[in-house]
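Hi again,

Forgot to attach this to my earlier email, sorry! This is the prediction with NAP bound. I've pasted everything inline since the attachment limit keeps bouncing my files.
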Amino acid sequence: MRTVVFGASGEIGRRLGETLQNRGIEVVAAHRSAGVDVYTGTGVARACAGADVVVDCVNVTTTRAKVAVDFFGTAARRIAEGAVTAGVGRVVCLSIINAADPAVNAKFGYYRGKGEQERVYRELLGPDVLRVVHSAQWFELAEQLLARTSLGPVAVVPRMRCRPLAAADAADAVADAALEPARGDVEVAGPEVIDLADLAKDVARQDHSPRWVVPVRIGGAAFRTNGLLPRGEFVQAATTVEKWLAGRGGQVTR
Ligand SMILES: NC(=O)c1ccc[n+]([C@@H]2O[C@H](COP(=O)([O-])OP(=O)(O)OC[C@H]3O[C@@H](n4cnc5c(N)ncnc54)[C@H](OP(=O)(O)O)[C@@H]3O)[C@@H](O)[C@H]2O)c1
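Structure tokens for the complex follow:
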């Protein structure tokens, strides 16, 4: 079986590629340094040729709705069209729990882009081909937010009440969605409800970071209440916050 991973060099794409290879699946790693650009369309048709499954794990780092909607919508269109032309039997789109819900994404431009991504895939592919994996936020997002939101001695991290999971567990769930004969969308989330800003504080303490982590309210009420939590059945990932922190090494002193 041949699977194309678009975004194969990213946080989850790397893990997904390894997971699939460990399951004996041939992986085509598609990203810009491999000559594939999902925004311009360069190399997409070549990557999809002869594939059984295509997985979209591409990303753009922005908080601007215009940029996110343009990138995710264009990339989804290029990938879906490439998959249809090549006769690919399954396309998996990796999205975020409730990101397409206007009540959740109204004040968060990045999630509006994820909404557009899901909309374009549903417009171009039937339910027999498309599977959307709606993942909760990953523990690793706390590390990324600390790195991206630092202003001198301060890291300004958004309050996000969610059920985060390890990116490795998310990669496992995406691999299952890609390979199992089952159809329909899937939600995957972690074992505990926490605020991601609190996890960022734990990560900073563990890393002996001199930065002062300041939680901020962004994204509207849905970010701080229940908007990011699964509303129905979901696949529960096994790795707990404590186990994930222990795997990073070093102590967390609270
Ligand atoms: N972080 C979370 O907590 C979370 C939770 C749920 C779902 N997700 C979703 O998971 C997906 C992947 O996120 P991530 O954090 O793993 O992303 P990431 O680490 O930022 O990696 C992005 C990937 O996309 C590729 N890419 C970007 N622009 C491209 C282009 N024009 N053409 C081809 N490839 C391109 C990058 O490769 P090159 O730069 O080499 O091209 C890289 O492989 C996103 O859609 C995100 O919304 C994330």
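The radius of gyration is 18 Å. The domain at 2-247 is CATH 3.40.50.720 (Rossmann fold).

That should be everything now.

G.
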